[in-house]
Design brief:
With about 160 residues, the chain is α/β, with parallel strands linked by helices. It has a domain at about 35-145: Glutaredoxin (3-Layer(aba) Sandwich), CATH 3.40.30.10. The protein has five helices and nine strands; from the N terminus they run βββααβαβαββββα. The strands form three sheets. Strands 5-4-3-8-9 form a five-stranded mixed beta sheet. It is globular, with a radius of gyration of 15 Å.
Amino acid sequence: MEGEIEQIAEGQTAPDFEFVDNTGRTTKLSSLRGKKSAVIYFYPRDFTPGCTTEASEFSRDYDKFADAKIEIIGISPDDEESHKKFRQKMKVPYPLVSDTRNIISKRYGSYGPKNFMGKNYLGVSRSTFLVSKDGKIIKIFRKVKPAGHSQEVLEVFSAYH
């Protein structure tokens, strides 16, 4: 199961995973159920232009998400050291999860074949999953364009609540 890429759909329960929260505690996505909604976004790599734009916008809008009881969780294949530097440089106020073996991204169907400048390879596709308080996926964004995405996510949640 660990190596398989799954396909998930809106309406399904979001696959559970562990992450380190802003207080440094290890927690699980399922621990948010009944308390908070969640934005789970997958991105290819720290410090790249698109990922920097996406992190910057989610950071800028973080208080709006927090006020609406929505946790933001960014996930990439980068290691903890890279995330620490990225979080500090970009002043990211939400958790960044290290998925170096792409286990979480495969469970969400965000890892797979990609093509860049004629080169085919396997990697993480920029995608976002909106999870309701009850743990269900209410919206999936595939092939995300970073600029304006945070606002787009806020609008979907405001229409949902």
